[in-house]
Amino acid sequence: MIAIGSDHGGFELKEKVVAHLKERGFEVKDFGTYENKSCDYPVFGRAVAKSVAAGEAEKGIVICTTGLGISMTANKIKGIRCAVCSDTVSAKLTRLHNDANVLSMGAGIIGENLAISIVDTFLDTEFSGEERHARRIRLIEEEE
Ligand code: RB5
Q1: How far is the CA of 134 from the centre of ligand 1 (A)?
Q2: What is the CATH number of the domain that holds 121?
Q3: Number of domains composing the chain
Q4: How many angstroms separate the CA atoms of 113 and 101, rounded?
């Protein structure tokens, strides 16, 4: 299952990503927001991150205008490695190297087609499992 959430700034892109994920056959849990009305991104970033940290969701996707505030929120949750991606190379490498479990995107930064390619790359790339990368992730976890 993929957990997804956004604030008002990411709402329209979130709806498109949800439709794409469902088309691809993923089960999706949408934590909102469910309308364009102004709201607070930490509420939604936290909900997605907690779902992933609890093992309920395999991966999470969070979206705000920049992808920044909502990623900061997600990264406060123990066990979460959330990466802001605006290109597919970063999406691929953050899976291979960082085993990122939450993807953050900025709806005011990238367009829909690129966002969909980033989502697909993120979800279709496995962690490399290489020892040097696993060691670095353990070092990140020491700060939790
Ligand atoms: C909301 O206007 C905006 O601040 C938010 O979507 C996000 O970009 C924050 O980092």
Answers
A1: 32
A2: 3.40.1400.10
A3: 1
A4: 22
What's the pTM?
0.98
Q: Which domain holds residue 96?
A: 2-141
**Could you tell me the distance, in angstroms and rounded to a whole number, from the CA of residue 108 to the centre of ligand 1?**
9
Polymer length of the chain: 144
Pocket of ligand 1 (CB under 6 A): 7, 9, 41, 64-66, 68-69
Helix (H) or strand (E) holding 48: helix 41-53
64 is known as an active-site residue: yes
Residue 21 backbone dihedrals phi, psi, to 5 degrees = -60, -40
Q: Do 74 and 43 touch, CB atoms closer than 8 A? A: no
Residue labelled with tokens 């066990």: 79
Q: What is the pLDDT of residues 58-115, one digit of tens each?
A: 999 999 999 999 999 999 999 999 999 999 999 999 999 999 999 999 999 999 999 9
Helix pair angle (88-96, 112-124), 10° resolution: 20
Q: Which atom of ligand 1 is nearest to the CA of 69?
A: 10
